[in-house]
Amino acid sequence: MTRFKYILSSVITSFILIISAPSLNKCRFPFWAANYNHWHTLDYSTTYSFHHRNSTLRITNSSGLEMKVVCVQLKHSTRDENSVVLVTHFTMGW
Question: Membrane-crossing residues (predicted)?
Answer without folding.
Answer: 6-24
